[in-house]
Amino acid sequence: MEKNSNAKISVREKIGYGFGDFACNLVYASISSYLLFFYTDVFGLASSAAAFMFFIVRIIDAVMDPIVGMIVDKTNTKYGKFRPFLLYGAIPFAVLAILCYSTPQLSQGGKILYAYATYIALSVCYTFVNVPYGALTSAMTQDQHESVSITTYRTFLANIGGVIVAFFVPLLANQFSKTMSLSKSWQLTMIIIATIGGVLLLICFGTTKERVQVPASHTKIKFSDIFEQFKVNRPLVILSIFFFVIYGVKSVVNSTGIYYVTYYVGRPELVKWYSGIGTLPALFVIPFIPWLSRKLTKKQLMTLSIATDIIGMVGLFVFPSNWITAIFISRGIAAVGNGMISAFMWALIPETVEYGEWKTNKRLGGMIYAVIGFFFKCGNALGGMIPGLVLSMSGYVAKQAQTPTALNGILIATAVIPICLYIIAIVCMRFYNLDKETYARISQELQERNALELAKERV
C-alpha cells in the first residue's frame, strides 16, 4: 500500500511521537538544570573545572551531530530510517544518564576523568537518539499544519518532562537524602528518571510511522552535500543561528536558576517551585500554538514569544530578593514566552528539509537536523560555560553565604545575559525568508516533482 505523506496523523501517533521528547527532556533537563550543581556541591568539583568540562563536552557533542546525521541518512532498515535509533538507543541512554549522576570513590583526578567519560558517553548516545528522533517529523508528514500539530504535542510532552524534572528531581533527591548519603540520593533519583525515559523511547518507536517517500536519487548523499545546503538554503542558515542563540539562553537559564533561588533569593526550599513555574505555564500556552501559527506570521509569532520572555527576565532582575511573589510571577511570564518559542521553532525544521530538497534534489533529513543540533549544542556549550565562569569570576564559593559581588554575578547570569542574547534572536528572525505562501508553493512543486520521479522508478 502506498503511503500518503499528507495523511492526517492520529492523536495516538502524535502522543506516541511526543513521548520521545518527553523521554529526551527527562534526561536533558536533568543535565541542564542540575548537573553543574551536582558536580560542584555533591560530586566535589571546583566550579571552574566543571564549567570548562561543560564547554569541552558540549563542543565534542556538537561535532558529533553532523557525523551522526550522515549515519542516519545512510540508514535503511525494515523499521525505517529514523525509528531504529530509538529502539536500540533506549537502554544505553538510560544507563549512561544514571552513571552521570553516580559518585564513585576516586581521587580528585579520577573523579574528573570519570565525569568527562560518562558525560561524553551520554552526550554521544543522546545525539544518536535525538537527531533521528527530530528528523522523524519530516518523514511522518509533508503537511505544514500537521507538522505544527505534531511539534505541539512534542513540545507539550517535553514540557511535562521538564515539569517533572523541575519539581520532582530536587524533591526526590532531598527526600532520599534523609535516609542515605546525598550522592546516593541523587543517583537513586536519576535511576527513576532515566528508567522512565528509556521506556518512553520504546513506546515512541512502537507508535510512529515513516510515510514520506522520496526518489532513490534524492537519498544518495555525501557529507559535502551539507555545505551545498549552506550555500542555497537560507532558511537553514538563519534557523541554525537562531537555535544557537536560543539554546544558549536556555542553558544559561537552566544552570543559574538553582543558584538564583538558593543564594540570591535565599530560599533553597523554593527551588522546586521556581523550577516548576519555569515550565508549567507553557503547558497552558502550547496547545494554542497551531491556532496562533494560522493567525500570525512566523516572524510575528517569534517576536511576540521572545518579547514575553524578556519581560519576565526584566522582572527577575529588578525585583528585590524578598519580593517572592513578584519574582515567581516574573518567572511564570518568562516561562510562557519560552514555551511559545520552543513549541514553534522545531516546527520550522521540516520546512528547511523540504526547501533544501527543492533546491538540490537531495533530502538531507538527518543531516539537517544534525546541523541544527550542532548549532544548538554549541549554544548549549557556551551557555553552560558562562554561568560557571561568571560564578568563578564573581567569587562564588559553594555551600556558604555569598558576597555582594557573587550575588550580583548570579543576578547578571540569570537575567542580563539572557536578555542580551534574546535581542540577537529577534534580529536574526527578521532575515527568515520562508513565509507561509512561499513554503506552500515549494512543497506542492516538490511533491509533484517527486511523484513523477517515483512513478518512473516503478516502471
TrEMBL record:
Any single Gene Ontology cellular-component annotation: plasma membrane
Membrane topology annotation: Multi-pass membrane protein
Organism of derivation: Clostridium muellerianum
SUPFAM superfamilies (alphabetical): MFS general substrate transporter
Protein name: MFS transporter
Top-level taxonomy: Bacteria, Bacillati, Bacillota, Clostridia, Eubacteriales
Any GO MF annotation of the entry: symporter activity
Subcellular location as annotated: Cell membrane
PANTHER family on file: MAJOR FACILITATOR SUPERFAMILY (MFS) PROFILE DOMAIN-CONTAINING PROTEIN, MAJOR FACILITATOR SUPERFAMILY DOMAIN-CONTAINING PROTEIN
Transmembrane residue ranges: 15-37, 43-64, 85-104, 116-136, 156-173, 185-205, 236-261, 273-292, 301-319, 325-348, 368-390, 410-432
A single GO BP: sodium ion transport
Swiss-Prot/TrEMBL keywords: Cell membrane, Membrane, Symport, Transmembrane, Transmembrane helix, Transport
InterPro entries cross-referenced by the UniProt entry: MFS_2, MFS_trans_sf, Na/Gal_symport, Na/Gal_symport_CS
